[in-house]
Amino acid sequence: MNTVTHALLPVVAICLYQRFRKSDFSLNKFQYALITFAGAAPDLFTPHFSIASRYSSWSHTLPALITFTVILLTTASFKFKTLTTKVAVFMVVAYSLHLACDALSGGIPWLLPYSDAILGDYYISPSLWIPFDVILVFTTYILARTVKDSSSATTSV
């Protein structure tokens, strides 16, 4: 799938969760930016322009996800104001969601360098990737216009 999809899908999921669960937490714009970055991170760490190059990408693997998780949760344990544990968990979920989407749209080398096995297949056709991007951009725009920003609020995650 496209990097736009990977970046926006976790943000849309969080916005929808907040809206329908009437959750009591809110995120500021920088926290949303961190989550967006985490969703796109595997493609940003090792850019690829073909499925063959994705199959040799270290960032699309389980060891990379584990490393990313350890780094984020360790960093969040220092009690930063913006990178809280909850935001770090959202970032890990965003990274995981990227790997899941790629597994459904061509597969990922999930155990590289220990195995060349590919997890997944083309369950989502490449012809649907651009329509998904358009829908996600539109949905994100609508949700962003209606979600409360906590940068001016007294409580944040």
What is the N-to-C succession of helices and strands? HHHHHH
Largest sheet: none
- Structural class of the helix and strand makeup? mainly alpha
Oligomer: single chain
Structural description of this entry:
This protein is mainly alpha-helical and 157 residues long. Helices cover 59% and strands 0% of the residues. The chain is globular. One of its GO terms (molecular function) is hydrolase activity. Keywords: Hydrolase, Membrane, Transmembrane, Transmembrane helix.
Question: What tags apply to this protein structure?
Answer:
disordered C terminus; 59% helix; 0% strand; mainly alpha; globular; 157 residues; 6 helices
Short summary:
One of its GO terms (molecular function) is hydrolase activity. The protein has 157 residues and is mainly alpha-helical. Helix content is 59%, strand content 0%.
List the helices and strands and how they pair.
Elements: H1 3-21, H2 29-45, H3 51-54, H4 62-76, H5 85-104, H6 129-146
Helix pairs in contact: 1-2, 1-5, 1-6, 2-5, 4-5
